[in-house]
Fold this sequence. Notes:
- By secondary structure, the chain is α+β, with helices and mostly antiparallel strands.
- The protein has two domains: about 10-240, GAF domain (Beta-Lactamase, 2-Layer Sandwich), CATH 3.30.450.40; about 250-419, 2-Layer Sandwich (Heat Shock Protein 90), CATH 3.30.565.10.
- The chain is built from 13 helices and 15 strands.
- It has helices at about 10-20, 30-40, 75-80, 100-105, 140-175, 180-210, 220-245, 260-265, 270-275, 295-310, 345-350, 370-380, 410-415; strands at about 45-50, 55-60, 70, 85-90, 110-120, 125-130, 250, 255, 280-285, 290-295, 320-325, 330-340, 385-390, 395-405, 415-419.
- The strands form four sheets. Strands 3-2-1-6-5-4 form a six-stranded antiparallel beta sheet. Strands 9-11-12-14-13 form a five-stranded mixed beta sheet. Strands 7-15 form a two-stranded antiparallel ribbon.
- Helix 5 runs antiparallel to helix 6 and helix 6 packs antiparallel against helix 7 (about 220-245).
- It is elongated.
Amino acid sequence: MGAPLPPNEPERLEELHSLEILDTRINHQLEMITQIASRTIGTSIALVSLVDAERQWFKAKWGLDASETPREYAFCAHAILDRETMVVTNATKDERFSDNPLVTGDPNIRFYAGAPLITQNGHPIGTLCVIDSEPRDISDEDLRTLRQLATLAVGILQNETKQAKLEAQSQAAVTNEREPELLISNLAHELRTPLGHIMGFAELMQTELVNDDMGIRHTGFLDIIRQSGEHLCRLVDNLIRYEQSSFTEGLVLESIELNAKIDEIVRSFSGTVAAKSQTLTFAEHEDSVSVLADHTSLRQILTNLISNASKYGPVDGTITVNISTKGSHSDCLIEVRDDGPGMPLNVLAGLGKPFVRGENPADGEIEGFGLGLHITKRLCDVMNGSLVFSPNPAGGTCATVRLPLAMSESRLQSGNAVA
């Protein structure tokens, strides 16, 4: 028996379609939520199901191969009729579902519990549901967990939409040679709200599950969700800083001895590279070499470049940092090389421009908003230097920072303050 349509069906579908999440790629955070739901409640299947006009489509799934089913067969089409969680303890004894093909055939649904995914506008766009092939009951505690996970899932869905729109609009701004800064502030602050909800619910559920025998096994999943949320928060903070940034404010140029400075920065990456079994080496220059730079900015430049080399470099890879003056009496070159897969020349040429990003070879995904290297390049520029990227002859990528040598006391004083 197919479910009747909700009274607000046109508005509900309009909001579902406005999110632009149907038929999109896998969301790993939502997959983790389905795993937590399935394992905590003890069912063989868990789904994030979005109920469209003629079908239900699974944005995330655990224990099921199908990606969608007709709406007329969907238990979730019934579940969105009520704001409360719908529970079916034995589908063969429920007249709504006893002759349903999903009951009489694969996946042989007997037990179903679905918590509606209710948006900020109050529309149920789908459910987070758990399914089993054996009749059973569900405890009040498990129902509460399912509802909390559903709320968390809504935040993740809405955040995915806003991030996708931000990326599309920022790319359009660059393509049309418009000022990207005009759209950054509003969108960055919009992203902050759902991120706050995601982080809050993940931390709340971690606190509650740590005191539960079954939940202890799944706090790791929630920790990953929380860490992912923190990563997105850092991206948003980068956007806000970029919009508000004054690259010369507080900049003080002074003589900095590079051997000691770079050695200090390289040592700070020992844990990061060890996690990927990478080797990070710094070959000290045979002479003491000093550049005219700002301490904080130089640290940020080298930290960003080494971090990128590690992130995009392979497991067991090698990262090298070198200093060279190449006979110059005015400039010093600092090179950060990795032995990763490298990038096409057209991509290398664009690195350092706002919203131009590299691809992570580990999973093929493009990360971040492309502002880290842009900020790095701007910092080099305001210190009378430059940043260029080129292929590493041994394979991978070479980032070369050029900075002026600290030549003399008179030159040091003439460039001491930049504001």
